Amino acid sequence: MNNSNVITRQLKELGFNDNEANVYVALTRLGEANATNIAKKADLPRTTVISILQKLEKEKYISIQKYKGKSIFWIESPQMLKNAFLNRAKLADELNDLLTDMYHSEIDFPYAKIYDSKVSIKAFIEKTILDLGKKSEIYTIENPNAGNYSKIVSEEFFYHMLNLKKEKGIITRSLVVTDSFKNIHPKKIAEQSIIIREMPKSIEFKASFWIIGDILVLFSGKYQFIVAVKHRLITQSMKSIFDFLWNVSKEN
User: Fold this and answer.
1) Do 66 and 147 sit in the same domain of this protein?
2) 137 lies in the same domain as 221
3) Is residue 101 one of the residues assigned to a domain?
4) Which domain holds residue 43?
């Protein structure tokens, strides 16, 4: 199999056109050369090659050196080609996150996202609290015995989160499973504006359930993931279940 043909085809799949791929391959073979020699190797007009070389230099695939008033073109390591597309992939990931937050943000349309690493979970929690308005309310169902938070975030981050809530005057209404209130550290209660009620014995809950603004969140520390669903009607429906449980639960 002709390696040049394979390389040219794959370069085209990465976004190079025919002429750009031919020039890149030609200079790769030569290592360094002036535009005239590159044009001969690529079998293209010199003016076309110069235009392509300038484009490739701008994209950091090649470099230009001046020698006795003439331009000599050097091919960069093939690793530069890989790095360029890795950087594009990284930018695409960042753009995806930004656009996801905007996606259908002004209409009542279902949106769901999974966060399955400690870094992404902490970033989600912090951003969600920062986006809340002052004196907002958060509704949660928790099992303090499960240690969901301690398996994901450090004590420092936990209190950082509480400080953010305190600065914004955010109130938390939290339902916990029976006989678990005693396991909550008093400092964690004192450091925030929170009202806690214990649910009836018949209700088992090992994960965490949050309603934050128009976002419904299911959170597990055991498997380290968050599922966030943003939809007004779904959140309102789940809030009705929370309100029912709140009314049949015991205040501490």
Assistant:
1) no
2) yes
3) no
4) 3-81
- 128 with 38, same domain: the answer is no
Q: What is the pTM of this model?
A: 0.56
Number of domains in the chain: 2
Residues 145 and 61 in one domain: no
Q: Are 128 and 54 within one domain?
A: no
Q: How far apart are CA 195 and CA 74, in angstroms?
A: 68
Q: What pLDDT is stored for residue 228 in this prediction?
A: 92
With CA atoms as reference, report the closest residue to 119 among 218, 3, 225.
Answer: 225
Q: Which mean pLDDT values do the consecutive 10-residue runs of the chain (252 residues) have?
A: 72 86 89 91 93 90 82 82 74 71 58 85 87 91 80 82 89 90 83 90 86 88 84 90 93 74
Answer yes or no: is 205 within a domain: yes
